[in-house]
Amino acid sequence: MPFAQVGIQLGQDQIRRQAELFGFGKSISVPLKVTPSVYPRGLDDAQTALTAFGQFDVRVTPMQMVMISAAIANKGRLMQPNLIENVLSSNLASLYAPTPSEYSRPVSEKTAGLLTQMMIDAVAKGVSSNAQISGVKVAGKTGTAQNGKDEPYTLWFTGFAPADKPRVAVAVVIEDGGGMGQNGRGNSLAAPVARKVMQAVLNK
């Protein structure tokens, strides 16, 4: 697998540094605390290869995955996530409104553009096709994560739309194979959920 080979070439320290730029290893406040995502340490080459495509002991939250997609959508700029838009008093006066602030710049604008195009292709003509929305260019990627020899898979989709002028970024995770054991796939179960969420936002 190409990702495994690239992972070994990069090495665990370089992969970890890049993950940390996206927020891995840090508790993010939204203002509620979000459990930190984890990239493991002390790996051999085989374990590093597995982490390069999200396996072995990589642990990531849906919040972390949507932050990654949002940073790609935002041309490489990762913004501090906020759970609330505004806090109003009983007479509807604004008591508190978070100010948008930059969290980090994990990738360059050029790299974000290349990733966006690959995610567009994954939805338009690849393995993430069930996230397609008629008349809207969607950027996204599915994931089907193994958990053990006989354990059901964990199914993922993350992406954003419209890809050329983003308004919404999403991350969907379906645990326990969505009731389908090891027969469920990210594209068959997680991508349609993400499509409905994006449609709901875009149709407001």
Task: Characterize the structure shown.
This protein is α+β, with helices and mostly antiparallel strands. It has a domain at 108-204: Beta-lactamase. Helix content is 35%, strand content 18%. It has six helices and nine strands. It has a three-stranded antiparallel sheet with strand order 7-8-9. Strands 1-2 form a two-stranded antiparallel ribbon. Strands 3-6 form a two-stranded antiparallel sheet. Strand 4 and strand 5 form a beta hairpin. Helix 1 (2-10) crosses helix 3 (45-51). It starts with a helix and ends with a helix.
Can you give keywords for this protein?
204 residues; alpha+beta; Beta-lactamase; three-stranded antiparallel sheet; 6 helices; 35% helix; globular
The CATH homologous superfamily name of the domain at 108-204 equals: DD-peptidase/beta-lactamase superfamily
Report the principal-axis shape. globular
Described by its quaternary structure, the protein is single chain
Helix content: 25-40%
Q: Strand order across the biggest sheet?
A: 7-8-9
CATH architecture of the domain at 108-204: 3-Layer(aba) Sandwich
Q: What structural class do helix, strand and pairing data support?
A: alpha+beta
Task: Kindly report the average pLDDT value.
Answer: 94
Secondary structure: elements and pairs:
Blueprint: H1 2-10, H2 12-21, E1 28-29, E2 33-34, H3 45-51, H4 62-73, E3 78-79, E4 87-88, E5 94-96, E6 102-104, H5 109-125, E7 139-145, E8 154-161, E9 168-174, H6 186-202
Antiparallel strand pairs: 1-2, 3-6, 4-5, 7-8, 8-9
Helix pairs in contact: 1-3
Task: Write a compact overview of the structure shown.
With 204 residues, the chain is an alpha+beta fold. Helices cover 35% and strands 18% of the residues. The longest helix is centred in the middle third of the chain and has 17 residues, at 109-125.
